[in-house]
Structure formats: C-alpha cells, structure tokens
Amino acid sequence: MSDLARRHDFVLLFDVRNGNPNGDPDAGNLPRLDPETGHGLVSDVSLKRKIRNYVELAHGGESGKAIYVSEGSILNEKHREAYKAVRPDEKTDGAKLNPKSDDEAEKLRRWMCANFFDVRTFGAVMSTGINCGQVRGPVQMTFAQSIEAIVPQEISITRMAATTAKEREQRREGEADEGDQRTDNRTMGRKHIVPYGLYRAHGFVSAKLAEKTGFGEDDLDLLMEALASMFEHDRSAARGEMAARKLIVFAHDNPLGRAPAHRLFDRVTVQRSIDGEARPIDARLDNYPPARAFSDYAVTIDRDGLPEGVEIIERI
Asked: Comparing C-alpha atoms, which of 190, 196, 191 is closest to residue 40?
C-alpha cells in the first residue's frame, strides 16, 4: 500500500426523499435539526457508520479491512487479539491488560491500525479495560446540514396483525357495527419523515496524520468508494430514498496543503434552480416553491484562480 502524500478536503452533497436521515433519540426520533434556523442535521457519527457498513459489506474478510466498531462486536475482545499478536508466548486471558512499555504500546496501536480500516481512518479510543491506547485518525467529517430549512412530518401508521390471541379478541370485540370502521384497539404507531432535503457535509484527510496510522492511497480510494455508494446499501423504510449526489474533492500537491479548507469549500455553491436559472437562496426574500428533487438545485464550482497545487476532482 502506497503512503498518502497529499492532503485532501472534500464536499459531499446527498439528499433524502420521504425519509428520516438521522433521528434524534432525545426528541422522539424526530429528524435532527437546528432549532434556530430549521435546517436539518445529520451527525458525523451517522455518516461514519454508513462508511463502516459499506466497507464491511463490500470488503469484509479482506486483510486490513476489518471493522473495529461493528454491530454487536465486543471491543475488548478485539483488543485481546492485538495482545495475542504482540505477546505470542504469553497467556493473555486476564481480565485487564496494559502495555508493559512504550514500545509495546506502539506495537499494539500499529497492530490495530493495520488490521482495522476504521481505526486507521477515523482513529479510536481503545483504553477500555484491555488497553491498546488511542489513535487520532487522519479522516474527519463535519455534521451535514440541509441547504434549506426542512419541515419534518409525523405520519401515523397501523398494524393489521395482532401480537397475541388476547389482543386479537379485543380487536374483534371493538369492531364497529357498520362497514369496516374499527375502534382504537388496532396497534398504532408513528414515523417521522422529511419530504425532501439536500444536505451538505465537509470532510478532511490529513496526510501528516495518515503517516502515523498507515492510511494510504488505497484506503483513500476505498473511502471515496464508500462515500459514493454507502446509501445504496443502507435502504430502510425509515430512511426512504437517500443518494449521494455530488462528491467534490480538493487534492493538494503536498502533505500540508496549499490553501485553507474553508476557502476551497466556498468555491462550491448550491443555489435554487428556477426555470433553468440558478438563483440565490435567501429565506427572507425568496418565495420559491418547496424543493422536492435534486433537479430543483444548481451546484456550481468556481475553478477560476484556483490556488497553485490544488486540483479539483469530481468523484460524482
């Protein structure tokens, strides 16, 4: 695997239709939003989860591409595997394990980075009882925020089947005399959706931090593959239709970079497309119809006066 020699920054645009992109468990699973602006939010943790799931699905079992934070896994048992590799001649079944020296601590961290894609990529805190230290990952992502304010809707749903025989009898007793109208004995539920929302997230790949974890060019290609395809394998009734729409990468020609990330991100502009014309978004002034498709937006990239040594790569 070749080392990562260049810094990268990227903009990810994705959308959702009639789904809940990231429910808030502290708010009854309502779609996350900024209460001051009404803009929707998707946490960085949610996006990283989808990346992990894609890598595990597409490359599970391949050397160096295992996932550390996987569903139902016991993290300490994965730490124990590192100790077995570093201390092959010793018994490592104790309740707690700690490195005996700084050199051994470094070997443990390196083993975890070499074997787990998400440790090598995002870093991890691995000091939970069986201590493998901490790793600061070279890849970081921001919360995604919707381009415009969203209006979450609450949809009532019913279940026709009964859970128990007693519940079935209660339903029969509650049937109305006329037609097929029934009383409230039917099991009811609710789901929350966003009719449509286009979200924007930013990401950063540090070549200098990649040196410490072993994150290389092949890992970067896999990360970009996951960002482009992660929603294709994350379908559910709750999330509706989600799709990655744009992945715009700013590749620098050296490890430290040629320009601040925020100035590069400012080159990517998202506006409303009205009758084929790109118009600025300003909730105080515009009276546009609500967006219901990606085609309702216009995405432009300012390529003029690009800093020397910075290349724009459109992965989607």
From this structure: 196
